[in-house]
Amino acid sequence: MELNESDIPALARGCAVLGTGGGGDVRVGALAATRAIREHGPVRVVRIQDLADDELIVPLSGIGAPTVSHEMPHGEAEAHRIVEEVEKIFGRRPAAIMSSEIGGSNGVAPVAWAAQLGLPLLDADAMGRAFPEVQMVSMYVKGLPADLVIMADVVGNVTTIRPVDGLWSERIARAVCVAAGSSALMADYVLTAARARGAVIEGTIGRALRIGRHQVLEALQEELGAIRLITGKLTDIERRTEGGFVRGSATIEGTGADRGRGLLLELQNENLVAIEDGEVRAMVPDLIAVVDTETAAAIQTEALRYGQRVTVLAWACDPIWRTARGLEVAGPRAFGYDLEYRPVGAGA
After folding, report:
1. Which stretches make up the S-Me-THD N-terminal domain (predicted)?
2. C-alpha to C-alpha distance for 112 and 8, rounded to whole angstroms
3. Considering the entire predicted model, what is its pTM?
């Protein structure tokens, strides 16, 4: 499979939905991907089985507060600097780039980085959605050591981190990111194809493309297997940037058939918890997306505005996140919520 310029709008729409409000604005990644394809040609998409066991895969993603990336977008140099550092460490060139998270701009921008680097893109990612913290990846859940993180910023700094575990990779990488202005490009879990097998979530580029081709709310809901939490108007939004994250909450007041109802969303880059009348309707690691009711286009947390007419959808995460280890890494308690995980739709 190849990704051409004509594929980027659908990929961007799908990644926005899977971003659950985070992962960065897909418009930035889509512009970069479109420009890179025009300059360097289509991007070949490969599967893990297409790679030899010892070939290297480099997961790439932007790290930081999504609102900052609007003012300080990544250039072409950062990806080249990271790959150069990988070559120094491993003594060979990577065989493929992989998106660390298929959600948001971090799902689309790797198309640009792959085109610029002349490397194929792996049809897989490490989340099946977007998460805000470095250790919240499938490789960490599977027990692979988080022993290498490489970061590059727009100034030209390259930082190589050798953390003792995934939690330390988040702490150190976040500190470096904040020092860089809360925006940097990052490669974590550089790994061989042999180690990647069974430790990444496969087929997510194709899934994002299928999701993105739906522009009618009912068709999108069916594609996702989602439940509709509420349709209404955004009446309150509170956001702040701190510690390299966007944190806050949003309130949706029901309209039409949902008049008289209200839904509160808790945010940390992504939509984490949906609460109605004190009852939790959906929570991480399941996916919660705010979409435009008319166009079915996802709305990122930094783009939420008073008066928007929206529908909130929720659907099941990849099974890896519902394991005991997955919930420990990215369940509600990992974000400070004293909640017992309940799968989306249970009791609804």
Report:
1. 7-161
2. 10
3. 0.93
What does the alpha-carbon distance between residue 323 and residue 320 come to, in Å, rounded to a whole number? 6
pLDDT in tens, 145-155: 988 999 999 99
C-alpha 180: how far from chain center: 20
Strands 56-64 and 96-99: parallel
Q: How far apart are CA 298 and CA 304, in angstroms?
A: 10
**So what's the pLDDT on residue 243?**
64
Handedness of CA 303, 304, 309, 315 (dihedral sign): positive
What domains can you pick out in the chain, each with its CATH number? 2-207 (3.40.1610.10), 215-335 (2.40.390.10)
Residue pLDDT, tens place only, 100-109: 999 999 999 9
At 348 the pLDDT is: 41
- Give the length of the chain: 348
pLDDT of residue 63: 87
Cα–Cα distances (Å) from 99 to 105, 222, 247, 337, in that order, read 10, 25, 24, 28
* Distance, CA of 337 to CA of 145 (rounded, Å): 27
Looking at beta carbons, which pairs linking 84-90 to residues 24 or more positions away fall under 8 Å? 85/150, 85/152, 85/158, 85/160, 86/56, 86/58, 86/150, 86/187, 86/190, 89/148, 89/160, 89/190, 90/56, 90/190
Distance between CA atoms of residues 68 and 71, nearest Å: 6
CB 14 within 8 A of CB 212: yes
In whole angstroms, how far apart are CA 78 and each of 74, 113, 321?
7, 9, 31
Please give the span between the terminal C-alpha atoms of the chain, in angstroms, as a whole number.
40
Please determine, for residue 253, whether its predicted confidence score (pLDDT) is greater than 70: yes
Q: What is the mean pLDDT of the chain?
A: 93
H-state helical runs in 156-281: 166-179, 193-196, 204-212, 217-224
